Amino acid sequence: MDSKDYKKFYLIREDVLPESVVKTLMIKDALKNDPTLSIFEAVKQFDLSRSAFYKYRDTIFPVDEKMENTKEFTLILYVNDIIGMLAEVLNKLSALNLSVLTIHQSIPMDNRATITVSLDAKGTNLEIDDVIASLQTIDYVSKVELISMTI
Fold first, then answer.
1. φ/ψ of residue 54, rounded to 5
2. What range(s) does the ACT domain occupy (predicted)?
3. CB-side exposure of 93: number of CA atoms within 13 Å?
4. Same domain (yes/no): 51, 24
5. Which residues are bridge partners to 144 per DSSP?
6. Residue (of 106, 104, 129, 119) closest to 149 by Cα position
7. Pick from 102, 74, 77: which is nearest to 11 by CA?
8. pTM score > 0.85 for this model?
9. What is the mean pLDDT of residues 109-119?
10. Same domain? 87 vs 140
11. Given this model, what pLDDT does residue 6 score?
């Protein structure tokens, strides 16, 4: 494979993206939601040049948009070492209609552990952000991160 043909992909939080990239995403969403809207009108509405829009439009997309067909992803949860913690996480995942593909719980150190779960979300219309937000509501879960996904 020629290295010029290979493109790396990155997951990056929206708050660190340049303004022109964020506006491109907003324009793409507006165009998707209103088929009568022209690109000229959309870029004018969001105060972005057409050249900037064309530069980014085929290179940036929301994670959930690319998950429409596969819906498989892996999360890592940082938790306190509390009896029943894994069961509570699994109960929450079941309530969200998520199927667990793989699961790993680390050996606790200093009363902290990690739980890594690979999930199949075909049984739900939830977006990744919704799943993460729901898992963060569990007592003694300090952080939840997306670490991989199938695209």
1. -65, -30
2. 74-149
3. 24
4. yes
5. 77
6. 119
7. 74
8. no
9. 96
10. yes
11. 53
